[in-house]
From TrEMBL:
Molecular function per GO: carbohydrate binding; glucose-6-phosphate 1-epimerase activity
Record's keyword terms, sorted: Isomerase
EC number: 5.1.3.15
Single GO biological process annotation from the record: carbohydrate metabolic process
Family indicated by similarity: Belongs to the glucose-6-phosphate 1-epimerase family.
The protein's name: glucose-6-phosphate 1-epimerase
Native source organism of the sequence: Ostreobium quekettii
Taxonomic placement: Eukaryota, Viridiplantae, Chlorophyta, core chlorophytes, Ulvophyceae
Residue positions of the active site: 154, 258
Lineage: superkingdom: Eukaryota
Gene3D superfamilies per record: 2.70.98.10
Keyword Isomerase applies: yes
Top EC class, one word: isomerase
Length: 284
């Protein structure tokens, strides 16, 4: 069965994924703009697990605020491009899919090649299974020389109350604090909690990280492979107020956990080679 392509916000095409035929089963949505996951509702919780701002702008080339922006070929300001690279601002094409999974692909435009002269194909596959969403990122070097990139799957999780949310699994790691000129610190706490702005790149993060949503009474387990690092971000009051496409109070409802290549060396990919990394979320 072909993927179910419908018209979403801003008249943009999106794919609706479902597990099985029953209404009420697990469901997810992916926009072709940016290969951007904007919704995941597992049957187990019956709740939306992904945060998208009520002020998100669905108008390319603007990136959608919330969901899972794909940051590629640059994380943040770590290179010559605009923040987080251009994949999140680009239209992907459907390459393959069925009712519960889709592969979207991006090749650079002429304009992209002027800014970043490297031919590649980026494929994002989103697959739904009961209680689990899997997102696979594949980068193929289509050029004739090695390419280097940094990246992230910039995942905005919805939480009921950020002051009652915890990120577990990062104790003992070195992190670069984006709020202090990327100075290096060691995480002393068993869990990261939120009482102010947090913007950290955890280097060599473990492949399992737990997000506990205390107020909702559930957790999301994030499993990553291939991404060495993980970014944890909440903008809090002042940064939230400075973002035009983000409500002033919405920092209370979200936590970003982003499997990334950001604190570690960039990926160097020889001509013709492919790099693959995966993130999986499961409810608990
Ligand atoms: O506003 P943007 O470009 O989507 O970025 C949002 C945030 O993305 C995070 O990954 C960065 O660590 C933050 O510094 C940044 O503010």
């Amino acid at each position: 069965m072909a993927p179910n392509l419908v018209t979403g916000d801003g008249d943009l095409p999106k794919v609706v994924l479902r597990c099985g035929d029953e209404p009420g089963g697990d469901k997810a949505e992916v926009y072709l703009h940016g290969a951007h996951v904007t919704s995941w509702i597992p049957e187990a919780t019956g709740k939306e697990m992904i945060f998208v701002s009520k002020d998100a702008i669905f108008k390319p080339p603007k990136a959608i605020r919330g969901g899972v922006p794909v940051c590629f070929p640059q994380f943040s300001d770590m290179g010559p491009l605009g923040a987080h690279g251009f994949a999140r601002n680009s239209a992907f094409e459907v390459q393959d899919g069925e009712s519960d999974q889709v592969t979207l692909a991006l090749r650079p435009s002429e304009e992209d090649l002027e800014r970043w002269p490297q031919k590649f194909e980026l494929r994002i596959t989103v697959a739904l299974s009961p209680g689990c969403l899997t997102q696979t990122m594949e980068v193929q070097n289509m050029g004739s020389s090695a390419m280097e990139f940094t990246c992230a799957l910039h995942t905005y999780f919805r939480v009921e109350d950020v002051t009652n949310a915890q990120v577990k699994g990062l104790r003992g790691l070195t992190y670069l604090d984006n709020l202090q000129s990327r100075e290096r610190f060691t995480e002393a706490n068993a869990c990261v909690e939120f009482s102010g702005e947090v913007d950290r790149i955890y280097c060599g993060a473990p492949d399992t990280i737990d997000l506990v949503d205390g107020a909702a009474g559930h957790s999301v387990v994030i499993e990553k492979t291939g991404f060495p690092d993980a970014v944890v971000w909440n903008p809090w009051v002042d940064k939230a107020a400075s973002l035009k496409d983000f409500g002033d109070e919405e920092y209370k409802e979200m936590v970003c956990i982003e499997p990334a290549v950001a604190g570690s060396d960039p990926i160097s990919l020889d001509a013709g080679k492919m790099w693959t990394a995966v993130q999986k979320f499961m409810t608990r």
